[in-house]
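Note to self: the last two entries modelled the partners one at a time, which told us nothing about the interface. This time every component goes in together.
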Amino acid sequence: QQPVQSPQAVILREGEDAVINCSSSKALYSVHWYRQKHGEAPVFLMILLKGGEQKGHDKISASFNEKKQQSSLYLTASQLSYSGTYFCGTEVGAGANNLFFGTGTRLTVIP
Amino acid sequence: EAQVTQNPRYLITVTGKKLTVTCSQNMNHEYMSWYRQDPGLGLRQIYYSMNVEVTDKGDVPEGYKVSRKEKRNFPLILESPSPNQTSLYFCASSLTRTGRPQHFGDGTRLSIL
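The predicted structure of the combined assembly is written out below.
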């Protein structure tokens, strides 16, 4: 039930954009996005609950497709501080007890 | 300050020597869980607890035990650690079991020789 995340790694120059995808073979109850910097704990970014939903803050946003099987994280005009590993976490149902995480996308922003 | 506190942060020990990693949260969260993080595998859930005295297995529970005697504490116990349990461990809590952000502790790096 682990979601599939892509790409595994991406290198950007400051100011460039990136998209990270998270896919499931089944419809999901929710998708969470987290960022983890090296040697630190994962930090919550946002959660999407509704099909077709889009949300974001600052220059990081995410969408959840209508079928609730895919979510994408958008990072625009990237900054050095965006570097880290991004994880999606998925819940398969309102009654589910687990959050399944993807294997992560390592994002490196260079000057 | 709202936080999840894990101890110790680092531990090097030997095979078979029982150890406990403590986890405490001050947010009155119902749901707590333990994850291990290994390169290329992401975060995998070990055990979770939906409330006091209610615990259940996650994806990789073998070799681990937990208890939830108080709402704020959720210790992870390795009765007889083995080298394949060398990993980075995170405790997390959330207000409810679904649809809410998980708040992670700072992690515990365990090395079992």
